[in-house]
Amino acid sequence: MSQQGGRSREWDFIDIGPKSVGDHSSQRIAPPPETSAVLQDTPPAPQASIRADGADIPAPPPWAHEIIQGGMGAGVSGWKLARAVSLTGHLGVVSGLGLDVMVTRQLQRGDPTGDYRRALAHFPIPGIAQQVIDRYFVEGGIGEGAPFRAIPQLVVHPSRDSARLAVVTNFAEIFLAKEGHDGSIGVNYLEKTQMATPAVVYGAMLAGVDYVLMGAGVPAEIPNLLDAFASGREGELTLAVHGGDAATAPSVSFSPESILGYAPPLARPRFLAIVSSTMLATYLSREDRTRPDGFVVEGISAGGHSAPPRGRLRLEDDGQPAYGPRDAVELATVRALGLPYWLAGGYSSPERLLEAKQTGAAGVQVGSAFALCAESGLVPAIRRSLRTAATARTLRVHADPRASPTGFPFKVAHLNGTLSDEAVYAERSRVCDVGYLRTPYRTASGRIGYRCPAEPIDDFVRKGGLPADAVDRRCLCNGLVSAIGLGQRLGNGATEPPIVTIGHDLTFLPHLIGDGDGADEYSARQVIDYLTSRRGPAAV
Predict the structure, then answer these.
(1) Per-residue pLDDT tens over the stretch 119-164
(2) Is the pTM here over 0.90, yes or no?
C-alpha cells in the first residue's frame, strides 16, 4: 500500500461485476466487529440468519463432508493433521504453500522418522525421487546452527529440476496424508503463488489428492488446469504481471511428458473456491470453464489473510480495517447458484455448525481449533503460548493491513519473540531468500522481474517499487516456516524469527482444554467430537 488509506499496488483485490444479484439482504454473512478479545464468555454474535427465509434447502451432495479442516500454511496443516481429520470421516486439508522448502529442510535434518524417504520411495519415477534425496538428504542431519541449503525461487519459467522438485515434494506430503486409509484429503493453495501452481497441483494429483482448495484471488482457471492434468495434457495458467496487460500476459505451464517423461491419466480432484464476496462466487459459477465444485465462504474473523474491504481502505481506531455492509456475503445468492458451500470464520462450535447447515450450507470449515491441537505443525511452545494467553484473556490478535507483502489484511497473533514484537522486527535484517510472495512485474525493457515489499527496501525501490509500500512489511515466507520449527539458521547463531497467525474467535478453547492452565493438549479427533456434539436437522 502506498499509504494507510490506499489500496495495495502489488496485489489489488479484483472486483468483477455487480456486488450482488437481486435483493437478498435478509440473509448475509455480515462482517463482525473486530476485537482483540478473542476468548469471550459467550460466542460472537451470529454472522448469518439461522433460517432460509422459507426457501427449500436441497440436501448437500453425498460427497460433501460436513467439516473441512482449513488449510493453514506454511505447514501448520501438514500431513499428520490432515490424516488425523480424514480418519474421522471429515475432510483433512494439507497446506500446499512452501512444501518444497519444508520437505527439503526435513531431509536436511536427517528425516529422523523416515516418513519422507518412505513417501519418496513410492514416487512413480524412482530416479527423479532419488535425485531429490541425493541433493538434500543429510544422514544424521546438518550440524547445529548450520544453514539449510536453499532451493530455487519461483520464476515464470522454472528449470526442469525445479519443476520436478515441486512435483516430488507435493506428492510426498499428499502420499503421507493418504497413507493407510481411504478417507478424503484436500490440498490448499494460494492464487497469489501462480508461478508454482501448475507443478504443485500436478504433484498432488499424482498422489491421488481428492480436493483442491484455493483462495486469495480469483481462481478462475483452476478447473481447466485440473481437467488438463486429469487427461494427461499440459496445463497452464495466465500469469498476473504488475505493469502488464492482458494482451501480453505470459502463461505458466507444466507438461508432464516433457518434465517427467510420464503423463498418465489421473483422477480429477474436486475444486472448492474460497470466496469472500457474492460477486466472486457468482462470477466463477457463470461458465463451465470457471465453475468450481463448491465454495468455502470465508468471513473476516478467520485466521491468515482476509479480503480487504470494498472501496477505499478505512481503519478503525485500533488500526484494523473497517468493514461495512458492502462486505457482507449474501447467502441466499450463493445458495441459488446450486453448488454446495461451507461457511468459515467463527464457526468453531456445534451451535455454529448447526446454524450453518440450517442456512443451507453443507457444513463449515474450521481452522484455529485445529491449529492449536496436538497434530498441528506449529511448534509446541508456540501452541502452548497461544492457548495460555487466550485462556488468560491476554492474547491480542490484530488484523494488520500492513504486515503481509500481498497487501491483504493478515491476522497477527501478538507473542513475545515473534515478528509481532516491534523490537524483533526492527532487529531482523531484511532478506528475500524464499520468495513465494514475490510479484512478477514488467521492467522498463519489457522483461519480467520479481519484487516483494518485504525485501530490502533499496532493492524494492530499485525494481520500481514505492518506498511507502515497503514500510512495516513482514517476511511471511521466512516467518511462517519458522513457526513450524524449520526457520533458516542465520550466521550469528540465531534463527529467523517466527510470525504467528490465528483467527479472532477462540471461544472453543474452554470446551477442549477444560479448566486447565492453557498448557493442556487436545487432539484433532476431540475437535471433531466437540463440533459434532449437538447434531440436529440439517435444514429447516
Answers:
(1) 999 999 999 999 999 999 999 999 888 999 999 999 999 999 999 9
(2) no
Contact 91, 69 (CB under 8 A): yes
- For residue 183, give every residue at least 6 positions away whose Cβ sits within 8 Å of its Cβ, in sequence order, or none: 83, 86, 87, 89, 92
**Distance in Å from the first CA to the final CA of the chain:** 45
Got the DSSP string for 488-504? PBPTTS-BPPP-----S
Residues 4-19: pLDDT tens digits? 333 333 333 333 333 3
Sign of CA dihedral 62, 66, 72, 76: negative
Grid cell of 4 as nine digits: 494507510
Question: How many angstroms from the chain centroid is the CA of residue 177?
Answer: 17
User: What letter represents residue 84's amino acid?
Assistant: A
Backbone angles phi, psi at 213, to 5 degrees: -120, 140
Tens of pLDDT, residues 454-488: 999 999 999 999 999 999 999 999 999 999 999 99
Do 397 and 503 meet the contact criterion of CB atoms below 8 Å apart? Answer: yes
Q: Check if the beta carbon of residue 66 is closer than 8 Å to that of residue 532.
A: yes
In terms of Cα–Cα distance, which of 385, 404, 407 is closest to 396? 385
- Residue closest to 408 by CA, chosen among 307, 314, 313: 307
Query: Measuring CA to CA, which residue among 190, 131, 214 is closest to residue 165?
Result: 131
Pairing of strands 28-29, 329-330: antiparallel
CA angle in degrees (0–180, nearest 5) for 294-296-299: 155
Q: Where are the extended beta strands (E) located within 119-250?
A: 185-190, 211-215, 235-238
**Alpha-carbon distances of 57 from 117, 167, 284, rounded to whole Å:** 47, 40, 21
Cβ contact 306:408 at 8 Å: yes
Q: Within a 10 A sphere around the Cβ of 398, how many other Cβ atoms?
A: 19
Grid cell at residue 475:
517476511
pLDDT tens sequence across 500-526: 999 999 999 999 986 444 458 999 999
pLDDT in tens, 260-316: 998 999 999 999 999 999 999 999 999 999 999 999 999 887 888 888 888 888 888
Q: How far is CA 399 from CA 216, 269, 300, 304, 323, in A?
A: 15, 33, 9, 9, 12
